[in-house]
Amino acid sequence: IVDLSGTLRLRQRERLAPFGDRVRWLDAWPDDMTGVVVGNEVLDAMPVQLLHFDGARWFERGVAPDGERFAWADRPTELRPPVDAAYVPGTTVELHAQAEAFVRTLVERLTKGAMFFIDYGFPEAEYYHPQRTGGTLMCHQGHRADMDPLVDVGAKDITAHVDFTGIALAGQDAGAQVIGYTSQARFLMNCGLLDMLNGADLPTIANAQKLLAEHEMGELFKVIGFAGGIDLDPLGFTAGDRCHTL
C-alpha cells in the first residue's frame, strides 16, 4: 500500500493485521509494477484547474484572501477547454491535468498488467458541452452536497466529475491500450453480478440495486480499463462497450 497518511496507515495495519507480512507499505510507487490496479473514486478527488469564460476571454480561476474569508480571483490564461464550442458568458469548466498525469505515471511503471478506474464522469463531448455552464465541481460534507468550496474550508471533500476522454488519451500516450469503457451497471452485469444475487437476502439485493440503477450509480459511474504488456479481453466489457464515444 502506498499511503502517505500516518493516521490511515495505522488504521490499515489494524484492519489488515490478520494478513501478517503479506501486506507491505511503501512511501512511493515502485519503478516497475506487475499486476492489477483498481481505482475506485480516485480520479474524481484529484485537484482540477478551473476555467471561467466572460464571453470574450478565458480566465484561470483561483482563490484569494478576502478579509477573514476567501474569494474567487480570476487571471487571464492561455488555457482552453479541449473542445471548441459556443460557450456562453459565465461558463465555468474544469481541466484535469493532475489526474491525467497520475494515469501517465502509473502506466509508465506498469510493465505487465491492467488498470481499472471506476468513477463518475463523461466523455469529452458531454463533459464540455456548452449547455453544461456551471462545471461539475462539488463539495461533500456530512452526507450533504453543495457547490461552494470557499465555505467551511478544510472540512469538506471537493470533487469533480472525470473527463474520461482525457484519461483515455493520457493512458494511450503513455503506452497503454484502452481495453474498454462502459457504465458501472453494464460492467457489473457482464461480470455476473445478477447471477451472484440469486438467493441473496433483501438488504443485499437493495444495495446491489443502487450500483445498477440508472437513477442511482449504474449510469453516472463509468469503468475504464487499460492494459500494458499483455493481451487482455476482460469480461466486464464484453457487452455495452462505449470506447467509440471517447
Overview of the structural elements:
The chain has 246 residues and is an alpha+beta fold. The chain has helices spanning 6-15, 97-109, 124-127, 164-173, 184-190, 193-196, 202-212, and strands at residues 33-40, 49-53, 58-66, 69-76, 92-95, 110-122, 138-141, 144-146, 157-159, 162-163, 177-183, 221-228. The strands form three sheets. Strands 1, 6, 10, 11 and 12 form a five-stranded mixed sheet that branches. Strands 4-3-2-5 form a four-stranded antiparallel sheet, with no helix packed on it. The protein has a three-stranded antiparallel sheet with strand order 8-7-9, with no helix packed on it. Helix 2 (97-109) runs parallel beside helix 4. It is globular and about 55 Å long. The two termini are 31 Å apart. 25% of the residues are buried.
